[in-house]
Design brief:
heterodimer; A: alpha/beta; TIM Barrel; Elongation Factor Tu (Ef-tu), domain 3; 8-stranded antiparallel β-sheet; 29% helix; B: 287 residues; alpha/beta; 8-stranded parallel beta barrel; 26% strand; globular
């Protein structure tokens, strides 16, 4: 049986590399045009080319989001842009516009087209429609539950991708223009100002809020494997390197552990807790097993759990002094218990017994984010290894 | 150019001064002014054979809906309604599978925004497009002129802004520990704009409280060759809506040459939604 795909979001080239090194099978990126995250850093054509080359060398794939809702003025430019990014080597387009789908499939039949969740696909007849239009994969709406996902796969045979982790839209994706009306920013062209996170005054004693908790499907990965889902998607092209490394690394281990039968309950609990904590937001499985209800939302603004677990990004090794070089992210001190984890899955338990600055001056505490620090360690570690707290 | 109305409730239907109506089918549509059973639609169609009756089936459908949806489409085909408004592509697929002749209206609320995609749907057998309300008049006119599809444009009414599958008012009032209400007026403090939140069986809809007054652009739509304008009865008084329909009908008959019509309906307010207000989507430079 083919393993399902773990698909990660990459807002820039560095995130693309971190995702792939930490175990993603594929990444999805936005170019400088026509992507729904107009205000993310996004990729230039050269960066797309470099990203594709990096991924392909690892036997992995890059998908490009082209999922805005197009206006007349976009139509002149989009065709050239499609030509350009195909030349960069992308493996698939993620599209919501049916005309663009037909255009790409006609001109570039060798390039896959995935139907974006922006189309809010919720049933097998809609999937059949797009199958007939040549779509290779459908990203289902987040409103679709387990039973319906299974039935869609069985009745259509189309490759199905589902979101498993990250922020949720409160409304059907694509069926929301709150951002347009409230802030004049076009939600369906990449300008979403996340109005569903706002609090509104009303006649009741408490503000009206509609924000949802984040999605976390860690404990249902086996269900998704069993019903034949093809790809598991992580949300968040604008997330931090630590977030991506933690989420991708954790899901990689869960998926692999399920396939090879090595995932113990104890290990799963640690991974699930890590996933619950990493975004500072409460999580839920939303529509997967039931209709989403009042327990899946926030009512008093954002209820955030403080997370300062991410202590540093390892950037090199000082051979002369036998030290890891890192950039500090959060406060830590001598005596703290930490874990050093690498993109290839190694995890080292470590008690901080000495901290040095860049010039090897001893420090008691690390209290300046972005400061270059050194920690004694017997061996050099892979680039993009990181340090996290484990005693909090 | 013809006028379609969305009446505030069943008992308000009076098509003397309009060319037809949009009726929302109960359980199969969302954000309707009122909802109608198939039997009620059948009766309205048979009582108004000279009118263009469109039926809205604009819900997002789930697997469990599909078999019922097939029956509904077959029955609507026999009723001979003028067309069906759809959001979910399942309807287009079912039209193909069931070999139906009934005309369809592409009504993906916020997505009907360019002429190429309108033409795409036209090539797939869709006859009409209800254009998005978040595009400018220039864009609307360009679509009407360049696309082969017949266009509909909503010119008067409270704009539908968003729809969620969640029961957002039930959830809100459950948290408050109070009896659930199915309508709530909310205020966004920065813009100082009000929105109406309405919960229904299929989820929760958001509407702009201010009425869009597009009476001033009807002439442009007429000149561009728009097929239908839509007027939604969100006016304070029902009789004002009938008067608006009557005046608009006359205005169109006079080829939109009466300046007095535009002057008279300035009273509906100066909010013209996005007809003259282009949205932005990029707020900072890459780097």
């Amino acid at each position: 049986m083919d393993k399902l795909e773990l698909l990660a979001p990459a807002g820039d080239l560095e995130r693309l590399k971190v995702n792939l090194l930490y175990g993603a099978d594929s990444v999805y990126i936005g170019g400088e045009k026509f992507s729904l995250r107009a205000n993310a850093t996004n990729f230039t054509l050269d960066e797309i080319k470099e990203g594709c080359s990096f991924a392909h060398k690892l036997g992995k794939k890059v998908f490009l989001t082209l999922n805005i809702v197009f206006h007349n003025e976009d139509m002149e430019e989009v065709f050239n842009y499609i030509d350009e990014v195909v030349l960069c080597g992308i493996d698939a387009f993620i599209v919501s516009d049916a005309f663009i789908i037909s255009y790409i499939k006609e001109k570039y039949p060798q390039v896959e087209v995935h139907l974006s969740t922006q189309n809010s696909t919720t049933n097998y007849e809609t999937v059949k429609y797009f199958k007939d239009e040549g779509v290779d994969r459908v990203v289902l709406a987040r409103e679709v539950g387990e039973k319906d996902i299974a039935e869609i796969i069985k009745k259509t045979g189309v490759d199905i991708e589902v979101f498993i982790h990250g922020a949720m839209c409160t409304c059907y994706s694509g069926r929301c223009a709150l951002s347009n009306y409230v802030t004049n920013r076009d939600a369906n062209r990449g300008g979403c100002s996340q109005v569903c996170r706002f609090a509104f005054a009303c006649c009741e004693e408490k503000d009206f809020t509609l924000a949802t908790k984040d999605l976390n499907m860690a404990r249902y990965i086996k269900n998704l494997i069993d019903i034949g889902v093809k790809s598991l998607k992580i949300e968040g092209r604008m997330r931090s390197l630590y977030y991506l490394a933690t989420v991708i690394g954790s899901y990689r281990r869960i998926i692999d552990g399920i396939y090879d039968g090595t995932l113990t309950k104890e290990e799963f609990s640690i991974l699930e807790e890590r996933l619950n904590k990493v975004a500072n937001r409460e999580t839920s499985s939303h529509y997967f097993l039931k209709e989403a209800d009042w327990t899946d939302q926030y009512y008093s603004g954002r209820v955030e759990i403080s997370n300062q677990d991410y202590l540093g990004l390892i950037t090199g090794y000082d051979k002369e002094n036998g030290c890891l070089i890192l950039i500090e992210r959060n406060y830590f001190k001598i005596g703290d218990d930490v874990e050093i984890f690498t993109p290839t899955g190694e995890v080292y338990k470590y008690k901080v017994y000495m901290i040095y600055d860049e010039d090897m001056n001893e420090l008691e505490v690390a209290r300046h984010p972005e400061q270059v620090l050194k920690l004694k360690f017997p061996e050099e570690l892979a680039k993009y290894s990181m340090i996290r707290r484990i005693n909090s | 150019m013809k006028i379609l109305s969305e009446f505030r409730k069943k008992s308000s239907i009076d098509m003397t001064y309009c060319d037809g109506a949009i009726l929302a089918l109960k359980d199969y549509s969302v954000m309707g002014k009122d909802y109608y059973t198939l039997e009620e639609i059948e009766k309205i169609v048979s009582n108004n054979l000279d009118k263009d009756i469109f039926v809205s089936l604009n819900r997002n459908f789930f697997n469990a809906d599909i078999s019922y949806l097939k029956d509904i489409l077959l029955r609507l085909e026999n009723i001979k309604v003028k067309g069906i408004l759809f959001y979910d592509l399942a309807i287009l697929q079912l039209k193909k599978e069931l070999n139906l002749k009934i005309p369809l209206v592409w009504n993906q609320t916020h997505m009907v925004n360019n002429y190429k995609t309108c033409d795409y749907y036209f090539s797939r057998g869709v006859e009409y497009a209800l254009l998005g309300k978040e595009i400018t008049l220039d864009e609307v006119v360009e679509i009407i002129k360049k696309s082969s599809i017949k266009c509909m444009v909503e010119v008067v009414g409270c704009a539908s802004v968003a729809f969620s599958k969640r029961k957002l008012l039930t959830n809100y009032y459950t948290d408050l520990g109070k009896e659930v209400k199915n309508e709530l007026n909310i205020l966004e403090r920065v813009s100082n704009d009000n929105y109406i939140v309405k919960e229904e069986n299929s989820g929760t809809g958001f509407y702009k409280e201010k009425i869009t007054n597009g009476t001033g652009i009807i002439k442009d739509l007429y000149n561009a060759g728009c097929e239908y304008i839509i007027m939604r009865d969100d006016l304070e008084k029902e009789e004002d809506f009938y008067e608006l329909l009557k005046d608009t009908k006359q205005y169109i008959l006079e080829k939109c040459s009466l300046d007095s019509y535009v002057s008279k309906y300035k009273k509906l307010g100066d909010y013209t939604n996005f007809f003259f207000n282009k949205t932005i989507y990029k707020v900072k430079k890459n780097g």
